[in-house]
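Quick one, T. Sequence first:
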Amino acid sequence: MASPAAVASRAGQQPKRAGHGRGFWIALAAPGVIWLILLFIVPFYGIFAVAFGQVDFLFNTPIPAWNPLHWQFTLFREVLHESVDGSFSAVWRRTFGYVFFSLVICVGIGYPVAYYVARLAKRKGLLLALILAPWWINYITRMMGWIGILDKKGPLNHFLGPLGLIDSANPTNWLGGNPGVVVLGLVYGYLPFFIVPLYASLDRIDQRLLEASRDLGKGAVRTFWQITLPLSRMGLITALVITALPMAGDYYTNQLLSGSPKTTMIGNTIYYYLSSGSQKNVGACLVIQLSVVLLLFMAYYLLLTQRASKEADRCARSPRSMRHRPARRSRPSRAGCVLGATPGASRSSCPPSPGCTSSGRSCRWSWWCSSRSTPDAPAPSGKGSRSAGTGAIPTRLWFTTPP
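Structure tokens:
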């Protein structure tokens, strides 16, 4: 006798699963929703109320407008004009410049470190603990340590003086408004934020894809550029976004390592207006502008993530539509036209492959997606074959293109 689930499946209905009711999941999500409302939505609404409110001309203090119908946008337009072409424009350009150069340095340092830990290191746990060790110490405490190192009488000047790189009689004031010190401070503070998500992306790359590339005669450099880097693209974008978002609003790194108006970032300007200045509504307008800029980057990242997710789902659900896609022309592999074949094999030794009905065509390698083995697409056998059998492998290699 067929079970109720089988009967429902044959009838085109989804069988009912035993589990918790809807009220259970609502109660489970309630604490997080309440936390989000109280500590994010309400304070952010208060920023809008201050930015679009009025000003007490007697005491020069803002009067929040809690009713959106009473909001006034005159001051916001003035601050926006100053940000585009006014006194704040230099601060915005400086902020974007510091963030850009900091991200470039993070990529140059963080990608090799993440690649080594994910693909080459034997003691990944120990190395990850060392990478995350700075998070165990307060950020300001770590920056105070850099103040002692970069001081005029600090170890850095004592080391560079005997080498003749600086004037020992007049040591360099590294903490007197040096943009390079601010950039290096940002890199030091946020580099772990960059390495961790990139490591997770590199660690998930299927090792069999790299082995198949090497079996095809690709060297380590070409394997990296053609396989590792494209497959880690979303992880790299994630690391850049996670690092850039807090870096753009940072103000304490600049304040501790420089404190000069020549290196002021937008975070320092917002901190000045909201804490020590009398025009708190100007600071609120700058907060809204910074939030909009960061939301644009976040929206672009979510768009890329959604697009990559759709491509992965389409590839997993419709392997046949990808199978007959024309193969990309590329140089023949030095390993031979068939996996495991010897170099110099004849053109007629190429076996039939998906989308190729003639065996007298030149063999080259191309990619196609599949989530399972299919009868009409037999996997090639040989030493280099990593997709034989019934194992579910996201990517396979085929080696035939039309002449």
